[in-house]
Amino acid sequence: MSVIDRVRPAHSRLKAIRRDIHAHPELAFMEHRTASVVVKELETAGIEVHQGIGGTGVVGVIRAGRSLRAIGLRADMDALSITERNTFEHRSTHEGCMHACGHDGHTTMLLGAAQVLAEHKGFDGTVYLIFQPAEEGEGGGRVMIEDGLFERFPMESVFGMHNWPGIPAGQFAVHAGPVMASADRFDIRVLGTGAHAAMPHLGADPVAAGAALVQAIQTIVSRTLDPADAAVVSVTQFHAGEAYNVIPDRAELSGTVRAFSELVQQRIEQRLGELCVGIGDAFGVRVDFEYRRGYPPTINTPAEAALCVETATSLVGADKVDTMARPSMGAEDFSYFLQRKPGAYVWIGNGPGEGGCMLHNPNYDFNDEILPVGVAYWVELVNRLLPAGK
To answer: What keywords tag this UniProt record (predicted)?
Structure first.
C-alpha cells in the first residue's frame, strides 16, 4: 500500500480539523486555540508534547528505533489581518482575521503526518514536529530559535512546506538554492523649507527632492546591480503636504527591498544611502535615511533539496515535480531555520490561482484535496531521512 493510500482513510477527519482551524484564525503570538488543537491531536496520538516555545509554539517529539539521528519538520500556525470574503460554512468567525495563506492546511498536514508516524514508526531516529507561531511578519521562527529550539531539540536538518496557488493541485516545486527573497524596509525623511506655492524660490522643496529620489531609486536594480542578480526595490509610500498652495517642509518615503543574497542586500542599502546624500545636496534639503533588515532570504541546501525531489517524485512522479521553478520575491521566516541548519522548503500545488484564490487574498482558501499528498510527503521524507534498519 502506498503512503498516500495509507493516509486517505483519515482525509475526512483531516479536512474537519483544517476547516475548524480556518474558522478560528489567530494572529501572531495569539495562536492559543490553534496551539491547543495541536496539543490535543498530538497527545491523542501518544506523542510527547512541549508547549510555550517562542510564545505559543509547540514541538512534538516522536522517537523510534535506536538511532541518535534527528530531523525537524515545521508548519506555521498564524493567520492574517484580512477580512474574509468567502461565504462557505467554514469561513472565519473572527472579523478582520483569516487564514489567507494556508497555514491552517500546513498545520493540518503536519498533524496528519504525526499521527501516521506515531502509529507505524517505520523509521529509526527522532522526529521533531515544529508548530511555529507568527510567521506573518513577526519572525516567530527567529523567536523560537532564540528560545532555545535547537538546543532543546537537537536536529541535524529541518524541512518546511508551503502551499502554492498556480501550481496544479498535489504537484511539487523544489529549488536547489534560493526559494524566497529577503524582506527589508527603508524609510526616508526629506527635510526642506516650507514656502508659499506661488513663491517656491523662497523655500527648499522636499516634494521635488522626493520625486527625484523616487526616480533615482528605480535605477538601483538596472544600473547598480549585476544583471544576473535578481532584486526588487519598490517605493510604496510617499507622504507630503496638506494644502494646495503650500510647499511643505517635509516629505516621507518608505519602501521594501527584496534580494536573494546578503551581498546584494548590502549593495542596495549602500546605494540607497548614497542617493539620499546626493539628492539632498542637489536640492538643498536634508535627507534622513533608515534601513531595517527583515527576513533573510530562504535558501535550500542542495543535498537536502535533492532528497526532497526524490521524495516528491516517489509520490507523484517526476513529471509532477518542478525543479526549475523560479523563486519568489515573497519572504518567509523559515529562512532563520535554514541559516542555522541544512534543510529545504518546498512548495505543494494548491491548484489554479485564478478567481481570487492567490495567497493573501480575501477569497483564498486552502485546497483540502491536497491534504493526503502533503501528509504522505512528510511521512515519506522521514522514512528516507531516517531509514529503519540502518
So the answer is: Hydrolase, Manganese, Metal-binding
Q: Compute the distance between CA of residue 388 and CA of residue 59 in angstroms, rounded to an integer.
A: 23
Amino acid at 172: F
- Angle at which helices 103-120 and 371-385 cross, to 10°: 50
The one-letter amino acid code at 58 reads V
Same domain for 62 and 168: yes
Which pTM value belongs to this model? 0.94
The amino acid sitting at 287 is: V
Distance CA(6)–CA(121), nearest Å, equals 14
Q: Burial letters for 365-388: b for 16+ Cβ neighbours within 10 Å, e otherwise?
A: bbbbebbbbbbbbbbbbbbebbee
Domain at 282, CATH number: 3.30.70.360
Q: How far apart are CA 32 and CA 51, in angstroms?
A: 10
CA distance 171 to 34: 27
Annotation: binding site: 101, 103, 136, 162, 360
CATH assignment at residue 377: 3.40.630.10
Lookup result for grid cell 509532477: 320
Residue 168, classed as helix, strand or coil, is coil
Span 220-249, average pLDDT: 97
pLDDT in the model for residue 314 = 97
The verdict on 259 and 212 lying in the same domain is yes
If phi > 0 it is left, if psi is from -120 to 50 it is alpha, else beta; for residue 22 that is alpha
**Which residue ranges make up the annotated binding site for Mn(2+)?**
101, 103, 136, 162, 360
Name the residue range of residue 74's domain. Answer: 3-180+297-385
Instruction: Say how far residue 239 (Cα) sits from the centre of its chain.
Output: 29
The verdict on residue 390 lying in a domain is no
* 130 and 213 part of one domain: no
For residue 386, is pLDDT > 80?
yes
**C-alpha cell of residue 162:** 508551503
Over residues 65-85, mean pLDDT = 97
